[in-house]
Amino acid sequence: MVRISAYCVMLPSCREMDVTSGALFLAVFLACAVEAVEALTIVLAAGTAREWRSAGFGVGAALVVLAAVVAVLGPALSVIPLTGLRLFVGGLLLVFGLQWLRKAVLRASGHKALHDEAAIFQTELAAARSAGARRRGLVGDWYAFTLAFKGVLLEGLEVAFIAVTFGTNQHDVPLAALAALLAIVLVAGAGFAVHAPLARVPENTLKFVVGVMLTSFGIFWGSEGAGAHWPGADAALLVVVPAVAVFAIGLVFVMRGVRGPVTAPATVQAEVGES
């Protein structure tokens, strides 16, 4: 995951860098994997129910837009002073992380229905099959194009934001990009190999873990940006991450005793595109 030499192990600064780089890679990989699963579900529905060529055009168009966003976002973040960047990124990650963690706690405690990619796939499939066909230029099926474009663009924006902000903040964009690319390739390859959504992936558990990681990094970087100094520097993440995880798990047990679990599943449509 992280290249270190025997000599580097002897240096405290290198050990701190190893901790941060490992956590960076894991957080980006898991978050991007979750987003990739959701985008894959929509693309598979568009291609299976409608037309694969048009769905492919939609994916390609979304990737072009995402590349432009990354090209603009990366240099823009790099000109921000490190302290200001960490305060800005930490605040945004804290917002994202708490949102993910809130939903994960609600699902784990039974107050919100679990995310079901198989049910979402069937819903998207039925909606795609019932829509009328319409051709626009080279795109033979405009519905398949727009469905795939929307799915990849919306989920891809979160992937781009997480990878660019994490990488820029830690001055290791290549590592963050590698984690994101590896997650996308693995999910896409597995999904298209079986030609079905990855319903067996423990997505609800992954979202819980990602929520913990994003929240922890948000607390850590936001505090540094505000002028705080963590004991042990980056090694403090070894305490922050477990502390957030324990707190979230504690909330799950507390909320399970508040009232009975949800018996009726939430509407599938409400889950589409939701983290």
TrEMBL record:
Residues annotated as transmembrane: 23-45, 57-77, 83-101, 142-167, 173-194, 206-223, 235-254
Task: Please indicate which superkingdom the organism of origin belongs to.
Answer: Bacteria
Q: Which UniProt keywords apply?
A: Membrane, Transmembrane, Transmembrane helix
Q: Please identify the protein, giving its name as recorded.
A: Membrane protein
